[in-house]
Design brief:
Low-confidence stretches: 4-9, 191-200, 265-272
Largest sheet: 6 strands, antiparallel
Strand order of the largest sheet: 7-3-4-5-6-9
Mean pLDDT: 81
């Protein structure tokens, strides 16, 4: 989600898993990070990473609002690709700056889904996803070579120095089963008239997937154990990141405004 800056009373225009184009001044401040980067997380700071080198950096609210920048590819604009081949990068020439230890560099060759079964050539790029993807996996990426970007800073970059594709995240299959088989739930305020299931709220389920995939994101969020009916057992076979049982809290006594497993509102005297 977008970051909120209480001091300035504004909301950043940047969201997680978006590709951004940094002003040169911001790039220099972040130890000459590439001007084309991925937003990996939004908290009190905007967390950025160069997916080609793993160099990372962050900006607080004041720094962002003094020199604002925009996404050049939003989440909904990412295209699906299939990984055709992958080779780990074993020797990386790291310069000064901070680098991610959560990710691993790899050279990958991909094909857009609509090119599968054709004679189209595989497209090479370098990615930060080397530790979680393999041949046959599906990924979401920004098709830089074919994108029409309306951004003055991006227009000044040398296109020859940009990758054809920037891979952003892995796609885990069986999305519906994954949602049904989730072993935790959140407590939140909601409108009585809004119904919520495991499939009807894409943005909410995307957020739950982010929690599963990012331990850092969920460390300050209370996750409650969810009782799964037997028909959900097959969902546990889905290969995707999961939250460990040791991280989950036992459910608390329901209070006014809590919801049951089906999202129905419960009152303070529920069950009496």
């Amino acid at each position: 989600s977008s970051g909120i800056n209480a001091e300035y009373g504004e909301i950043t225009r940047i969201c997680k898993d978006e590709v951004v184009c940094l002003p040169l001044s911001v790039s220099r401040y972040l130890n000459h990070m590439s001007q084309v980067a991925i937003c990996t997380r939004i908290s009190d700071n905007i967390h950025l990473m160069d997916p080609v080198t793993l160099k990372i950096g962050q900006l607080n609210a004041g720094q962002y609002f003094r020199d604002q920048f925009d996404a050049i590819c939003h989440q909904k604009q990412l295209r699906e690709f299939m990984v055709m081949n992958i080779e780990p990068v074993r020797n990386q020439d790291k310069q000064y700056g901070s680098y991610s230890h959560k990710h691993r560099l790899a050279d990958v060759w991909v094909l857009p889904l609509n090119s599968l079964g054709t004679d189209d050539e595989e497209i090479h790029t370098r990615t930060h996803l080397g530790n979680i993807i393999q041949e046959g996996d599906y990924v979401l990426g920004f098709d830089v070579a074919h994108a029409v970007v309306n951004n003055a800073v991006f227009d000044k970059l040398k296109q020859s120095q940009l990758p054809d594709i920037i891979l952003v995240k892995k796609i885990y299959s069986e999305k519906v089963k994954r949602n049904k088989g989730r072993n935790f739930r959140l407590k939140h305020l909601r409108n009585n008239s809004v119904a919520e299931t495991v499939t009807d709220d894409g943005d909410y389920n995307d957020f739950l997937e982010d929690l599963e995939e990012d331990p850092e994101l969920r460390k300050n969020i209370n996750l409650y154990k969810r009782q799964k009916p037997q028909w959900m057992a097959e969902a546990e076979e889905v290969i995707a990141p999961k939250v460990g049982v040791e991280e989950l809290l036992d459910d608390l006594v329901l209070e006014m405004g809590d919801a049951d497993e089906d999202g129905n509102m419960l009152t303070g005297d529920a069950g009496s």
